[in-house]
């Protein structure tokens, strides 16, 4: 499942993705030559993505309202083009997915350019961090660094399914998803959770790391946290098989 | 938020979380990447028909502007502007500052004070962006066109009909990013028709 | 009369209810914050909203004008600040926009109307002694801008059914007491 979807995404970015991080250049099928020799015009002051530092916006902040309006328009636009809650969630998931792929590279880039300890608990801290090989390392990457990059804090919980039938299921909990801050879902759509967008981001990160997974967002409100959301991560069979092999081989 | 008095026995970071929600900020990259995703999705949905993408972005911006104006008024507490020159300064120095943390320069006024340009030194929406190298995008796509719609929608809600479009963009290889804004008319403050 | 300090704290803060009227005079939100209030039928609330809207517009249009001392060329006018300057009359203090009815008071309660520059009206029913009504109204406007206008499922000018707005509004008003 993972492989075909990943390549589908690439063909999108190939066709028309104007928003591209430098890392995309290595993924795109017909590689673009760097600015200057490409067909693109550049301003004389050379304010291009190649001339400005990738960490320039690292600690920059913007109005939460601006994000809310953009995300709101993403939701309304998606809603106009689908019928039903499932389709809407699927569409939001698909919008988040490419973000996950891109953020993954940004995460690794930032981790290598600063301290490697932030990334994974299991890899040795002296060497630059590798992409996670084991499920738990990956999930910690999502729960911690990814969440902090996106939402400036870690997720609230990380759990493993206790049911023996579903050892491939993991849950990441966010008590107050930022994307849902201002959203009230109409009663007739009460199953809907717009954090499906974030589920898509997680799915992109998993796929990008080579962990085929399906991720969905579910409402699990409590009195204290009315918009509490559980992201259910279900890894594919191939991932679970590989996990067993790695376990036996003692790979961390 | 401060009124939600709950016993926090579980995790201590919950307290600081509640504090942080009062600060109305998010990571700038989240905004940039989300906007990029929207544009990329439109390019895909409209088969790289960039004219249509420009139109859709403007429409989305218009929807946003009609809502954003309330946030602007509620949180800035500013009153009505006396004239269009004042409006231009308000848009550039207060509006863009609040929502995009930039303050474009207001310049190139026409003599009748009905048209001006906004020159953007920085544009967070376009961080990380390079337009597709397909021989068309740099001539046809206005990547940040949503901003024109936002201005149109927001000002219409305070009884100003305007027209806004980009005339240059560093993403197209221009040396500046410039938006041209024209006042079409003040919408008369008439009473809306009564509901039946 | 020194009321503010001696007042019973509860009544000093009492906010009885809130009504929001859209640009066309339609009722889009109504909520009570105190038990024991007399309830009106939905229809009566609609009538109240529509009537107030109409009266508000009339009070605005009958704002008296004063004769102009020097009939110089009229300054470039923006809406609201001054109506078409017919003949030699103008509103006193043209820099201040013409407002409609802002307060309506009985012995037992006070109705405060806040109209936004976009034309939406917030009607707040409070105890006549309630102080800083302006602060309360501003906060309600902020909550409205956040939890109504930023909700993609809310359609402009339609009745407000936003659970997060109800929740935050209730929590904030309770937090004041």
From TrEMBL, chain A:
Stretches for region Disordered: 1-53
Pfam families membership: TRAPP
Signal peptide feature range: none
Keywords: Endoplasmic reticulum, ER-Golgi transport, Golgi apparatus, Transport
The keyword Ribonucleoprotein is annotated on this UniProt entry: no
Major location category of this protein: endoplasmic reticulum
Subcellular location: Endoplasmic reticulum; Golgi apparatus, cis-Golgi network
InterPro entries: NO_sig/Golgi_transp_ligand-bd, TRAPP-I_su5, TRAPP_component
Cellular component, GO annotation: endoplasmic reticulum; TRAPPI protein complex; TRAPPII protein complex; TRAPPIII protein complex
Role noted for this protein: Plays a key role in the late stages of endoplasmic reticulum to Golgi traffic.
Quaternary structure and interacting proteins, as annotated: Part of the multisubunit TRAPP (transport protein particle) complex.
PANTHER family, per the entry: 41-2 PROTEIN ANTIGEN-RELATED (PTHR20902), TRAFFICKING PROTEIN PARTICLE COMPLEX SUBUNIT 5 (PTHR20902:SF0)
UniProt name for this protein: Trafficking protein particle complex subunit
From TrEMBL, chain B:
Pfam families, A to Z: TRAPP
InterPro entries according to UniProt: Bet3, NO_sig/Golgi_transp_ligand-bd, TRAPP_component
Subcellular locations according to the entry: Endoplasmic reticulum; Golgi apparatus, cis-Golgi network
Superkingdom, natural source: Eukaryota
Keyword Transport: yes
Keyword Signal attributed: no
Keywords: Endoplasmic reticulum, ER-Golgi transport, Golgi apparatus, Transport
Main location (coarse class): endoplasmic reticulum
GO annotation, biological process: Golgi vesicle transport; macroautophagy
A cellular-component GO term for this protein: endoplasmic reticulum
Similarity-based family: Belongs to the TRAPP small subunits family. BET3 subfamily.
Protein name as annotated: Trafficking protein particle complex subunit BET3
Organism: Penicillium malachiteum
Automatic annotation (TrEMBL), chain C:
One Pfam family it belongs to: Sybindin
GO biological process, any: endoplasmic reticulum to Golgi vesicle-mediated transport
Region of interest (Disordered), residue spans: 70-90
Keywords: Endoplasmic reticulum, ER-Golgi transport, Golgi apparatus, Transport
UniProt cross-references to CDD domains, sorted A to Z: TRAPPC4_synbindin
Name recorded for this polypeptide: Trafficking protein particle complex subunit
Chief place of localization: endoplasmic reticulum
SMART domains noted in UniProt: Sybindin
GO cellular component, as recorded: endoplasmic reticulum; Golgi apparatus; TRAPP complex
Biased composition regions of type Low complexity, renumbered to the chain: 71-88
Family: Belongs to the TRAPP small subunits family. TRAPPC4 subfamily.
InterPro entries: Longin-like_dom_sf, TRAPPC
Subunit field text: Part of the multisubunit transport protein particle (TRAPP) complex.
Subcellular location: Endoplasmic reticulum; Golgi apparatus, cis-Golgi network; Golgi apparatus
Domain of life: Eukaryota
Annotated source species: Penicillium malachiteum
